[in-house]
Amino acid sequence: MAETKYSFVKLDSEAGLLEEEIRRSNISTTLDRIMTTGDALDIYFVNPLSGGDETILNTVVVDHDVYNSDVPFPTGQGDEFGIDDSESTTSSKNYQEKLRYGSSRLPAGKYEIKWSFELGNTKQAKESEYRVRIYQVGTDEYTTLAEAMQEANKNGSYHPVSGFTELELDEDIYEIVVEYKRAAHTAKIRRVRVNLRPTTR
Questions:
Q1: 58 vs 81: CA distance, rounded Å
Q2: Rounded to a whole number, what is the largest CA-CA distance in the chain?
Q3: How do residues 10-69 score in pLDDT, each as one tens digit?
Q4: 8 A C-beta contact, residue 35 and residue 20
Q5: Could you point out which of 75, 97, 112, 136 has its C-alpha 20 to 30 Å from the C-alpha of 154?
Q6: Centroid of chain to Cα 91
Q7: Environment class of residue 14 by beta-carbon count within 10 Å: exposed (0-12), middle (13-18) or buried (19+)?
Q8: Does the fold of domain 80-198 match that of domain 4-67?
């Protein structure tokens, strides 16, 4: 067996805390080290993970990004958040809505929008696609925040996806929409979280 690297997109990962969370988890393979460079998060194990252990790792990373960020959610006053932990699947090549979160009426200003979910495919190494958009009710307009294709892990398990952006918003009501579709076979998604909060940066 040889050392194996598992790579993720870093959102708010703190390597020391994440390492502790992985060691406390039920992953049976020994963790070697965690490296972060820019937006890259690389986690090294002394041997390859089993399918079950890789699923646990994905869950630990997603939970860490969401709940241990500098502004975890739900955070209370000033924050808007939406959660859907259920699993959904689709064989459609058209985008299917997984979560639509409607905000209260927001004052004009700069806002930070975060999203996090697990995306996969029921068949090994097949691709699924996702799109995150914000909808402004008053103008009836959508703005795409992120759109990409994700290949399922070798055993068809989930892969964590996360991201964030900052936008200047007019006073209005907004909806954050997470959508997904298959590129091949059957796409699946679960553990969706979105967070909208004002920022002074």
A1: 22
A2: 58
A3: 655 566 778 878 988 899 999 999 887 776 788 999 999 998 888 888 878 876 654 444
A4: no
A5: 97
A6: 21
A7: middle
A8: no
d(CA 41, CA 13): 8
4-67 CATH fold? Alpha-Beta Plaits (3.30.70)
Q: For 80-198, give the CATH class.
A: mainly beta
Delimit the domains of the chain by residue range. 4-67, 80-198
Cα-to-chain-centroid distance, residue 5: 20
User: Distance between alpha carbon 60 and the CA centroid of its chain, in Å?
Assistant: 12
Whether the Cβ atoms of residue 61 and residue 153 lie closer than 8 Å to each other: no
- By three-state DSSP, how is residue 96 classified? strand
Q: Summarize pLDDT for 125-143 with one digit per residue, the tens.
A: 788 999 999 999 999 999 9
- Quick one: tokens of 29? 């393979």
Residue whose C-alpha is closest to residue 181's, from 94, 86, 88, 84? 94
Going by C-alpha positions, the residue among 146, 149, 150, 148 that lies closest to residue 167 is 146
Tokens linked to 11? 């959102």
Rounded Cα–Cα distance for residues 5 and 32 (Å): 10
